[in-house]
Structure of Dopamine beta-hydroxylase:
Amino acid sequence: MQPHLSHQPCWSLPSPSVREAASMYGTAVAIFLVILVAALQGSEPPESPFPYHIPLDPEGTLELSWNVSYDQEIIHFQLQVQGPRAGVLFGMSDRGEMENADLVMLWTDGDRTYFADAWSDQKGQIHLDTHQDYQLLQAQRVSNSLSLLFKRPFVTCDPKDYVIEDDTVHLVYGILEEPFQSLEAINTSGLHTGLQQVQLLKPEVSTPAMPADVQTMDIRAPDVLIPSTETTYWCYITELPLHFPRHHIIMYEAIVTEGNEALVHHMEVFQCTNESEAFPMFNGPCDSKMKPDRLNYCRHVLAAWALGAKAFYYPEEAGVPFGGSGSSRFLRLEVHYHNPRNIQGRRDSSGIRLHYTASLRPNEAGIMELGLVYTPLMAIPPQETTFVLTGYCTDRCTQMALPKSGIRIFASQLHTHLTGRKVITVLARDGQQREVVNRDNHYSPHFQEIRMLKNAVTVHQGDVLITSCTYNTENRTMATVGGFGILEEMCVNYVHYYPKTELELCKSAVDDGFLQKYFHIVNRFGNEEVCTCPQASVPQQFASVPWNSFNRDMLKALYNYAPISVHCNKTSAVRFPGNWNLQPLPKITSAVEEPDPRCPIRQTRGPAGPFVVITTEADTE
């Protein structure tokens, strides 16, 4: 007989008498059914282990593990819940909101514990889902914790369910501290809640073997006292040893200080430009007024890790060069601390471990910047919800700079600042969009990692690479211009490719002369509010624009049709020969079609739930 857990504040089990009475217990929505979890159809746990793990909350109460079956298009989740709790909420939403979220619920009424697929409305009220697409497979009690095993298809075609794609997923969670008599009695506003970003659908990439001469180098924060604010970007400058010879980085992985797994959100290692022989040492918040401006030139990405990511392996035929002549010795480590509970007194020495070899591989991997130039010429008006800016790597640049055999893009890191919401890079050939290089429809500026592509993309001479970013400035009162500052904006895709070429930056911006014509038109139909005199800077001009619908639409039209200035730059920051100003926008006659989601074939619908949970005791011997 299963152990009976009634009269406890957490997971309780029904006795046989409760089972007989369960049919009498119900709500207006559904009949509560008592089931044995192991008897569910298709309830066998997955054979493979759970390769991905993340802590959901800073206190370590909830830990999520998962694995992915691309053949079945199903994710198996394992949720570990520590301590006695009255219930837990887990799910997904568009931006991490608790409203309009796709949820799975576990809660108790004080006697029995229930599991259900649910959703929240725009007021945070929780409702039972008519389609129970989250399927509980196992509930197991271990000491003072509970382990839940459940699964869900990528796509359910249930309008209340989130479509799981290979972009960023905003996971939401909540902890119930007291019993609730029914699901409909729960509102997310009264719960202890939070969010966590992750990429659930990791690409299936084989792990290359490491050579015998592989060495490691740790780039770590030096015993940082984590600030008790929600968001901190910490910058630390270090340097390679003198006369460090040329090597290839072939793998890197995160080193996270034990106990800080939920606070260290993402980390990046940048190499500084080799145009300066030395860079000032710095160890402090990246937005500090004490940070030297020269550190803005430490932007060449060597490694990037985000929560939930495993070790990053380069293809066997390529490695990233660092060290030796022509390479800067100075590196910048940037750590994003996410501390929503304002925890104090926590020290951290997290960082990234580089695995490198002196046995240089056949191809050197390069990193190329695509998108928009860091310039105030590109701006987003205030109070916009979906304003799109686009940067071009033109056919003329790829024709001149790429080898005849082309290059292979195998990984990508998308990047904007705080108002970025979507990013996509598309490859076009002969005037037609052919394939998506990388796309994130749920992009978060607080979750950035280098992602391996499921399929490498080959770029030939004469191809066009188009990078578009969608921004939301509805909480801003002034125009947001492009630039390096965190309150300014960027639109970048750092693509990782081989073989390395001289082309390091292939981006664009609207022609300055046409932007000035825009300001003249604003004055013609306004009250001469924008200064078009030589002493006025572009940010000052944008700050003076009255943002009525006419001026907004005119700016969109300018960016969609005006000529561009193309930056087709070598690693020395010098453009390839030729006139790159007043270039026409590439003519694209067809776009890549969005794939239609494949709805699963629903089996005969079972009971609408919720289900009373019967747990099993784990064998701890």
Remarks:
- The CA atoms of residues 365 and 498 lie 5 Å apart.
- The longest strand covers residues 420-429.
